[in-house]
Structure formats: C-alpha cells, structure tokens
Here is the input.
Amino acid sequence: MNKQLHLGRRRFLQGSGVALALPLMDSQLSSAAEKPDANPRRLVCIGNHLGYYPGNFFPQDAGLDYQISPTLQSVQRHRDDFTVFSNLDDGMTGGHNGVKAFLSGIRKDESSGFPDKNMTIDQVAAEHVGSATRFSSITAGLDSGTDLCWTRSGVRIPPVNNPARLFEALFVQSDAASLRGERTRLTHRASVLDALRESAGELEGQLSAADRRKLEHYLTSVREVEKQLQMSQAWLDRPKPASPMDPVMDQERMHIEEIPLFYDLLTLALQTDSTRVATFEIPMGFRTSELDVGSYHGLSHHSKSEERLGQLQIVDAYLMRQFAHFIDRMKEAQVFDHTAVVWGSGMGNGSSHSNRNLPVILAGGGMNHQGHVVCPAEDHNRVPLSNLWLSTLQWFGVEADRFGKSTGTFSPMEIG
Here is the structure.
C-alpha cells in the first residue's frame, strides 16, 4: 500500500464540532506493507440488552472536561481512552426487538430491503479478516445472550455461554481421533455444498425474477458456509497457542460473576491473535450470588421507585467495573491501542422500552478521544448511529461507503 493511498483512507469521527481523530502512526507509513500484521487492528463489541439508567449514565457537560457521571465513576481512570456519545440512535422502535439492531441499525423484520440485510459491524469486520486468524470472530455472552450478532444472510449467531468451552476452543489441542472426525465432517459438508450449488445453477434459468432473487439470497448463505468451511480446513492442523492462564473448569456457574473471566478469555484471544473480532452479550436476565438485587428485567421497569432504582444502579455499577477491568486487561496485554471497543446498548430507557438516545461508548484504538460528544438532539439534525459504525469499520480497514442506515461517515477527514 503506498503512502498517498494510506493517507487518503485516514478518517476521523466528528460530532457537534468536536473531532475524534484517528492518528496516523509512523509504522503505518514505513512498514505496513512489509509487516501487515505487526499490529493488526481489532474490534470488540459489548452489548447489554437493558441498557443503563439514563439519569445516571450521561454526563451533563460536553467536551474533555466533563464531570464524570455516577455510572461512569468506575471507569474514571480510563477517561482519556474513551468517548461517550449522547443523542445517537438509528430511529429504531420496537423495544426489546429494537435492541437486536444495535450493531446493524436494521431490524430483522425490515431487513429484506437492504442488500446486506441486518448484518452487524462485527460480521463485516470478520469478513474483512477472513482466514487470517483461527476464528474470524468470537461471539460470547451470558445465557442465551441478546441477539447482538447477525450474518450477511440475516442469520443470528448465538453466543458461547460457557467459559470452559471458550477456553477449550482457544487453547486445548484436539487429539488425533477428534481431528480425523472433524476432517471427515468438513469433507462431507464440502460435497453437500458442491451438490447444492450445482442444483441451484441448473434451476436459475427456469425461475422468475422474484425467485432468482430468492435463489441469490440462498446462494449467499451457501457462500458464507463455504468461507467458514475453508477457514476451518486451513486451521485444522495448526497447533493452538499455549494458554497463559490455568485451565478453566466446567462447573456450576452463576451468570453475572462470569463476566470478568469472559473478559480475560477474550483478551487472551486478541493477544494470541486467535481472533481480531469479538463480541460479548449481556441478556435481560441472569443468575447471581454476589449482587443482592431483584429481577434485572423487573428493575429496569423501575417506575422511578427509589428502591428499584437503587438496585438497578448496583447492577449498572457492577457492569461498569467489569468494563474497566476489561480495559485494564487489554492494556496489560498491549492490545488496547490497536483495538476499537464499541460498548453500549440498543435500549435507551428500559423503563419505557425506548430505543432512542442510546448509551454509546467508543474506546481504545489509539484514537484522540474527546470526552463527551453531544450530537444534535433535534429530529431533523440527528446523526444516525450507523454513521459512527461506518467510520469504525473504515478505521478497521473495511472499504465501505455505507452501513445500515448511514447517511455518510460520522465525518470524513479532509487532508490538504
């Protein structure tokens, strides 16, 4: 990649006159072509289904010198390394169903009119990475998750919800018998895909325009499976990295207490370059022995009850402490400056089921973070959240000029 081309793709994010710059490193000019993976860019997305109590989440002031809000107190030590955004959303409705569009900007029930359906930013980034890592992406989460991740063909990716299984996938070497079985399975899948593709080709000339579109959607799904198949074959015989931590045992689990362990495992996945794209999902319900609170979903419908609000803020504070822990671990592993972390929720206010004014944080990535960016609140001036996701994808290296319901990048950088 030549110098001029690289400069031309540099971007920064801007809202309400405040720039969020993506700095150009000297190493990108001198050695990116020779060592493309010396410091690969990574993307982590964290989504909480029920959001955060807005009265305690958003700071009152804009800019770098904002006074930290009660919910953000636990991550205060990292305030120079993240940006908080106000008034961002994609005009979504639907309450719990709207949450599923947090990383796509498009609900599944309205996705048929979009070429990439309700594909989420993590999966766009995963396609960009391809087979460069053992796992193009890792989706983890508590229990059944929150429907955060969707493929190009509109298929939901369920999370790995057992830390022991995630540890095994990352670090436990398969024995010879298991490898033979996996190789046989992959060969069988390949032959089935070949037959399906051949049959589809024979049908195409006999179909109406509408049926041809359905067939194209079907073939897109087949191509996605083929890509996964090829990546599995490429990595099947390569040894996994040694684990820097003790084995994780499969035992009786309490959901919310597993969050720091999941964050440790995802940090190791990034550090060992087992993946460059990861997501973590926090559902609307969980088990706990540590937090003395009632039903999480019930607390979100607090009706301004002081008791329920107090308990809800205990949960919010716990989740924020674990987010701070995750940043600590990524900094220790020296991957944070090359990792963009998208954090937030598709639920703006759990009590009213509003999908507007979402809690959104963008952290890490070596960016020139700008504290609290307040975007326009008026409907005719609102900035789509998809614009921020498009700029994040461009930072990651994806050549795209649109994403979801974007109207452009958050703001392109003009270089004289």
